[in-house]
Design a protein that fits this description.
The chain is of the alpha/beta class and 187 residues long. The chain has five helices and eight strands; from the N terminus they run ββαβαββααβαββ. InterPro entries: His_Pase_superF_clade-1, His_PPase_superfam.
Length: 187
């Protein structure tokens, strides 16, 4: 009998990211994003394991917890864990000029991945190690319960998926990087 792991990205945060941002505004956006509420989920994906889940693992961030409650209701036990928080990001750059938010985010993320923007935050190597530990935890949960469900974040979920594939898990459905994207792995 197969075991299943569901990796679900949170719903779309309700936050405006249009226009041009100074460095300070981009830094404030990151803070606000972590606390933002999410859009209501109007339709449930047919790939959700509705009725089969007693426990859902989530990040400690509000957008993941709110998404889990919307998808699975109040009868499911939510287990929050710092291990499942998103990879950290720190806005990098000189405090001059205004740019689209994506410029600040992509530049900062790329420099972080290269090890050049990790002052006072988790390094990329540490984050990948944490994702591998999260994958191991999910695999153990799936072996014990036959199913493990995680509602977390896009970047983290991608690295968890990579680690699970290295452990022999097969991607049955790739939910992509979109909001409420559901990736299903089996072994």
């Amino acid at each position: 009998m197969a075991n299943y792991i569901y990796l679900i990205r949170h719903a779309k945060p309700i936050i405006d990211k249009s226009g041009f941002f100074s460095k300070a505004q981009a830094q404030q956006y990151l803070k606000d994003y972590h606390l933002a509420e999410v859009e209501e989920i109007l339709e449930r994906d047919e790939h959700l394991p509705a009725g089969k889940v007693r426990k859902v693992l989530t990040s400690t961030l509000p957008r993941a917890k709110a998404t889990a409650k919307m998808l699975f209701g109040n009868d499911v036990e939510l287990v929050e864990d710092e291990m499942f928080r998103e990879f950290e990001n720190r806005i990098w750059g000189l405090p001059i000029g205004k740019f689209p938010l994506a410029w600040w985010q992509v530049t900062s993320r790329v420099l972080w991945m290269l090890g050049l923007n990790q002052k006072e935050i988790e390094s990329f190597i540490q984050a990948k190690t944490r994702a591998a530990q999260a994958a191991h935890h999910l695999a153990q949960e799936a072996e014990k319960e036959r199913i493990a469900v995680l509602v977390a974040h896009g970047f983290l979920n991608q690295f968890i998926k990579r680690s699970l594939r290295k452990q022999g898990w097969k991607v049955k459905r790739n939910g992509g990087r979109g909001y409420v994207g559901i990736t299903i792995l089996t072994k």
